């Protein structure tokens, strides 16, 4: 089964088209609601990675992880928590971790601002400012985020608990991940493309692929090309 993890200010419903159009022989797609991990109390990236791995292990002996952006970072933590569990993984537009403490401090400060706006600001204004970021240009069709307002406490908490500024640079541990891993970035997402090119070879069985004519939100900007890349990769992974 494919376990799909949404991004920041995202929802399980983001993966509906992908799940509905995948061939049946790929055993289905489980679209996870990540906000439930933060509904009751704080939870670090490491703790969430452990919880994800334990939850999936109970019901799926050969899972495939699919994580986009923030979900990709959580997927990496789950993979490192139990490296031998995973059949394969697809990491989309994710960051392996900042290398400089000054960068992490700056990111935590910026994410604290996003957290405050998500928690106490006008929700429509928050969504508008979030989507106006240059990196999210050309977003494609995505579910209406207005319905996420009821989860705003957990969304706000994610900017603190799961901030890139709280994440260690994971690349030193990448050799522990032995499953076939596809690292996808968009052609117009230059920053994350360079990261993918740099870090995918550090994985024991990693490959970086660039999807043409899209930016950060690959699965929604180019849904057919994204699905085709996943199908080709999964077909190869099942043969290993």
Helices and strands in order:
Blueprint: E1 2-5, H1 16-21, E2 29-32, H2 45-59, E3 64-68, H3 70-81, E4 88-92, H4 101-120, H5 123-131, H6 152-161, E5 181-186, H7 190-199, E6 206-211, H8 218-221, H9 223-239
Parallel strand pairs: 1-2, 1-3, 3-4, 4-5, 5-6
Helix pairs in contact: 2-3, 4-5, 4-6
Account of the protein in words:
The chain has 240 residues and is an alpha/beta fold. The chain has a domain at 2-97 and 169-239: Rossmann fold (3-Layer(aba) Sandwich), CATH 3.40.50. It has helices at 16-21, 45-59, 70-81, 101-120, 123-131, 152-161, 190-199, 218-221, 223-239; strands spanning 2-5, 29-32, 64-68, 88-92, 181-186, 206-211. Strands 2-1-3-4-5-6 form a six-stranded parallel beta sheet, sandwiched between helices. Helix 1 (16-21) links the parallel strand 1 (2-5) and strand 2 (29-32). It is globular, with a radius of gyration of 17 Å. The model has no long low-confidence stretch (mean pLDDT 93).
Number of strands: 6
| Overall mean confidence score, pLDDT | 93
CATH architecture type of one domain: 3-Layer(aba) Sandwich
Q: Spatial order of the strands in the main sheet?
A: 2-1-3-4-5-6
| N-to-C CA distance | 16 Å
Structural class: alpha/beta
Largest sheet: 6 strands, parallel
Instruction: Give me the oligomer status.
Output: single chain
CATH class category label of one domain: Alpha Beta
The CATH homologous superfamily name of one domain equals Alpha/Beta hydrolase fold, catalytic domain
Shape annotation: globular
What is the overall number of helices?
Answer: 9
- Low-confidence region ranges: none
| H and E string | EHEHEHEHHHEHEHH
CATH level 3 topology of one domain: Rossmann fold
* Rg for CA atoms: 17 Å
Fraction in helix: 40-55%
Strand residue percentage: 5-15%
